[in-house]
Amino acid sequence: MLSRQDAIEAVTEEEFDVVVIGGGVTGAGVAMDAASRGYTVALLERRDWAAGTSSRSSKMVHGGLRYLQNFDLGLVREALLERQLMVQLAPHLVYPTPFLVPTLGEEKRDRRIGIGLNMYDVMASVRASGMTRRERAARAESADYWAPDRHRTIDGAEAIDLVPALAPRDPSHAYLFYDCQTDDVRLVLTILGEAERLGAVTLNGVEVTDLLEENGRIAGITGIEAESGEAIAVRAANVVNATGVWADRIRPDEIHDEEEIPRIEPSRGTHLTVSHDDLEIGRAACIVPAGGGRAIFALPWYGRTLLGTTDRDYEGDLSHVEPSGDDIDYLLGATNDFFGTSIGRDRITGAYAGVRPLIATGDEHKSVDISRKAELYETSSGMLTITGGKLTTWRRMAKQVVDRMVEREGREAPCRTADLPLGMPAEEKDFADLGGLDVKAPDETRANLGFRYGHFASKVLRLATEDETLARPIVDGQPDLLAEALVAARFEQARSVADVLLRRTRLGILAAPQLRTAESVMPVARILGKELGWGKQRVRAEANAWLDEARAEGIDPAARH
Question: What angle do CA 437, 439, 444 make, to 5 degrees?
Fold first, then answer.
């Protein structure tokens, strides 16, 4: 990725075909798709990459089994096909995980779940994708092809082997099916990397304040660059608003005054992480009943057990969405009731909340929630706004936007993103430098770097060999290396300790209790300072700023008591 200074010069000195506003997964996808079709592209993000909803997902690439209850069949089918494609395009980053729906003791199996899983199986099949027989055969023969096994019923012993935490609950059997997991931020960064490889210019730390217009039509944007506070202008023939729940903050009068524009109804989802010592989830995820016909999940992620999610209307501050006490108690209560555990807030290793951009129409006679479906609309200035949707369907949403641009310009430029790999998996040679480092858990470090960076893991390790300080862990007991802080600043436009701990690594939501003091994050602050030219006073201020950010985000519920 270009340095911020180089990117600032590029966006202010050049004129583009497209400027994309929003550095989450949808904006990154639009930038990549447009660049792959020959458009010149600039992408601008107000804060940091994936700082909004895209870093606060359930970390799943999935069809959404619960949407079948709402008969949202089109959404589920689309997401299942995208799930399969993502495993093929980014096999190091999107991986299959077994999911269990257990039946405990003398309970009777819920046949409705079996019926739903049968539908899930059918919609996930390649045959349902609309491809020709020849296309299906060609895809199935590719080396990185993956298709999920059909769901099946397993006995209690196999269920316990997959999820040891079930042992005290005496499961009689369980439904077993497959979905996928990822690191949502790393997925965004990988898409951004591909967009830049295709010619896009990407820049964070720019708040778009208005649109440029000529003769009543859009001609670019104006904004404020965060570090300098200076105004900048970026000229472009097309503007895409991909800011999710913030979509109506750009030209709100234009959006709100046009009758057919749907309204964004934010919904908060809260997640917690706990140690495997407190809930040994093992190798599979588990669907957990949560009362009132609802369910949450417990799944393995980065060596922790991830619990989520909630779904509540949200009307608060969108800048910092904090997990509420009620949501935390709800997740812990459902988990403890089901597994027979007694996990309290003092055992939480991290927490986060995000807001989903659900869509409702502006007409009170038509104000029906349309779930997680994406919505694309064009306002009178020519700005295209895309919102709604979910992490899994980012590529389809991006295609929808760029297809509209192609159509209104009369171009011939078909979408190519179904065939563009996302990053490169690591090979054995990429870990050659690992053997020469004094790393406490080399196997965990290897797995972590390979998953997060793919082929680029070799660069991280090379930096660590050049300075032994960088081979140390950021947090004791975790595999993340201090070299990753340098990589974040040098290659990924990280500008703060929070950028490193919340988004380049995920330690802020995996090891929050170990990051409660400014001193605990000083090694990261010093590395950033050396790379970004900070003085000692700025380094100390940035370490203290982390404490403010952690409190505002509510990542450490145990610290509140």
Answer: 120
